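Dear Dr. V.,

Thank you for agreeing to look over these. As mentioned in my earlier message, I'm a first-year student in the group and I'm still getting used to reading structure tokens, so any feedback on how I've presented them would be very welcome. I ran two proteins. I've put each sequence directly above its structure. The first is here:
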Amino acid sequence: MTRIPYTPHPYQDLLTEDIFAHKRGNRFAGMGMGKTVSHLTAIDGMNLTDGTELTLVLAPKRVALSTWPREAAKWSHLTNIEVQPIVGSRAQRLKALRADANVFTVNYDNLPWLIAEFDDKRWPFKRVLADESRRLAGFRIKQGGVRSGALARVAHQEVEVWSNITGTPAPNGLKDLWGQQWFIDRGARLGKSFEAFKLRWYHRGYDGYGIVPADFAQEQIQNEIRDCTIALDPRDWFALEEPIVRNIYVDLPPEARRKYREMERTMFTEIFAHGMPRGIEAVNAAAKTMKCLQIASGTVWADTKAKITATVHEEKLDALESILSEAGGMPLLIAYQWVPSKEEILKRFPAFKFFDTAPETEDAWNAGKIPGLVLHPQSGGHGLNLQFGSNIIVYYDQWWDLEQYDQVLQRIGPVRQLQSGLNRNVWVYHLLARDTTDEDVMVRRESKREVQDILFEAMKRRSQ
């Protein structure tokens, strides 16, 4: 790869300077703001001024494998950076650890293994960059995720520089912040334990279930972490046009509505599939919600072991066909949640392609050779640049996770379009079955967005 000169944007300078000024801090920046190269620039500078220390980058697998190495190889000013991914089989990972590099990248799932490798010897990484640090939100002192729990054993004793990097710090509300912040200050600002955090800023919901933040929680929590947090909002730096959002409602046919109501009320319905009636049962409330969302989208698992699906209606497929027709030849990026939905989409539109994470698929999409790219947020949400392929995204299925929703949107979103010199609006279509859980999901996602938007607005004041 031919290296190119680096001329940082003002917001990238802010990020790099903040890493130097605050050795442990949160860097909340929207997608497309150059977080990766800003951090590499800071680490490169630290290698020159403070001496070379090993850096560990934690990231989703695809980002660890390709995004960080590509960025390091892309820019000509990174003269003291050599990136080595720690991926693959155990033998491959051990070989990678012996490589002559100073920046190592590892996916979060391999964290317990990596830390176990150094149980009987000194932890070598003095700098840790947690890319998509929301993955650490589930950390708890006495329980919680295996990955973050393993990381906690070395986070403060051995690590001198720590950066939480994300564009979605609190997609599920303020409670997402405690686990991430603990890795910055060991609980100094938000409480030594999650229980202490809850006691200070939360109370039980009015229905007696779950917890809700107190009225004063958001402002106080923001004030507590302000001194170690920088937040960059793309809207402050770019002349962005907001995405044009269209909610496309479909009405369930009478028979589909009857089955939806049966599932909603009794957690059971019967659907005809593969020549025979099959009982569809939900074992608990969460399973019932998923079954209702599947019925709302049109296709449901009739037998997961035998991989048999049952079509309840085709209203969303028809709506997707209308959007395709109106697009006038512009490809569609289609986000799905349920495997039965993916299969029905590909059956109705055989020219569409499933996003299989292969680089050739990404290249073909960006070259305009794929009329419809069908992807799941978990495989297509991080580290991808898909903006050259289209400016139209369709959310076929609805799901609660705001982070997944935003990550997929920003693969072709306004920032990506503008930075790539593509002067075009971004169109977002939500396919919603009327009077179903689809609508509940939309309301819940927007309420989460409000919390996160307020957080960004408050935190970015230190950036100005």
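The second protein is here, in the same arrangement:
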Amino acid sequence: MANTSNKNPVNLKSWEEAVQWLREQPEQSELVIAAYYDDPVIDAADRYWKSLEWKEISKFLPTRSGAALDIGAGRGIASFALAKEGYKVTALEPDPSALVGAESIRSLATETGLSIKTVEEFSETLPFRDNSFDLVFARAVLHHTTDLAKACKEFYRVLKPGGTFIAAREHVISKHEDIEEFFDIHPLHKVYGGENAFLLKEYKTAIENANFRICSVLSPLGSAINYAPYTPEALKSEIAFRIVKNNHFLTNSVNMVLSNKYAWAIMRRLLDAIDNRPGRLYSFVAEKP
């Protein structure tokens, strides 16, 4: 599904310019920190490694050694986390940017001395041999691919038998007509473009047709991987507030109910079933047999 939106009032020409623009908006300071776009990058990367999101991701890591491929590595925060876990990391990032791309990763690797090699290439044409990696990791990458099916086949090709593929924080829409609403609410699409989202079944089909075995599909409220930077407690408080609006007493009462793990499990399943927010986040864990 192609990105068809032409809404671009600021008309920035690169992702680097878009992120720099975001960092210059005082009202977006919390988002900049939540997205790990703040400097110095080593501090942002270390914060990501220590985050609840990464703690939950690390539960799916097959080992704490071997070769890991970080697809669409951006400024290198996940590459840093993987290297800190013990992997020899190859960071794939086509953007050469010193702020949000390959040069940022190189600087991070040099400063930390971690085992991170940077390769400037796209995910649909991986320049690696078959069966090269124990882990293929992609954070917010699949929805940016120009050919989702081809990219998943490439991930499968370079992964060793028995290896793990993790695709974290992928934007999902319920129907194709929702894409314009997603574009409208995304904080950076309006200034640069480049965003996209797929149906949940389109992600699952692309992964399965590449011959992966899907082990877990994590829903928006089912894992901190997706709802970070909220903590579980903050998430429940936000849900309680939205249910009863401005009634402080009822908010506290609902929050107390949701603190019960059984009540929360029921509420989470209910909310996941009715959640149609354009761009909500899902994550996928799969294995190469």
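From my reading of the second output: Residues 15-223+277-287 form a domain with the Rossmann fold fold (CATH 3.40.50.150). The two ends are 29 Å apart (CA to CA). Does that match how you would interpret it?

Kind regards,
E.
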